[in-house]
Design goal:
four-stranded mixed β-sheet; four-stranded antiparallel β-sheet; alpha+beta; 8 strands
Length: 199
């Protein structure tokens, strides 16, 4: 073989090696750059996600605080225990305007005389103890030919509250005898139901 051909082959091989090494370096640097860009994009995406999550948490906390205030449609349940007669009277009423949109702490501050048993935006349960009688002790008795309604205090003393329009002369003899002796009724609802039986 001619020396020229050998030199051409050697030069071609050297050029091929140089070119191959150059291409390898070029592609490896290019891949590192791409990977770095991808990592940066991932980090950026994670940062954006974290920022969005923090904003959502802040908004959620604000919403929760607003939703935890007393609703205009809320009801208040008052439970009063009367020591004199050992009765617990429970009443319900609509929330007054001055408690609407108040927080639990603001409600406690406004209603210092009560113990706050339960608090939610739609229902507040209050409790307190009172000395004396609950005021729902009634005594029904014949009075001037009609059924009279008396109240009794914690000592059993009767006071005429009102006369009904129910005449005793038209009632069965057994009922008239019971009414002459007097019938004790506890609770206004029970009193109304009792009187409805005679109307």
């Amino acid at each position: 073989m001619d020396k020229k051909w050998i030199i051409c082959i050697i030069i071609t091989v050297i050029l091929g090696l140089v070119l191959g090494i150059g291409l390898a370096i070029f592609f490896s640097n290019n891949n590192k750059t791409e990977n770095m860009d991808i990592i940066s994009e991932k980090e950026l995406a994670e940062q954006e996600t974290n920022i969005i999550a923090n904003i959502e948490i802040e908004n959620t906390v604000e919403t929760v605080n607003q939703q935890n205030n007393v609703s205009p449609n809320a009801i208040i349940i008052e439970k009063v225990y009367y020591e004199g007669c050992d009765h617990l009277i429970r009443t319900s009423k609509d929330v007054p305007e001055d408690l609407v949109n108040k927080s639990e702490d603001e409600v406690k501050e406004k209603l210092k005389d009560w113990k706050l048993e339960e608090y939610s935006p739609t229902q507040i349960v209050l409790y307190k103890t009172q000395p004396g009688n609950c005021g729902e002790h009634y005594f029904v008795q014949e009075h001037n030919g009609v059924i009279g309604i008396y109240t009794t205090d914690q000592y059993g003393v009767k006071s005429l509250k009102e006369d009904t329009e129910i005449a005793t002369q038209y009632l069965p003899e057994e009922d008239v005898n019971r009414l002459k002796a007097g019938i004790e009724i506890i609770g206004y609802t029970n009193l109304v139901e009792f009187l409805e039986d005679y109307e």
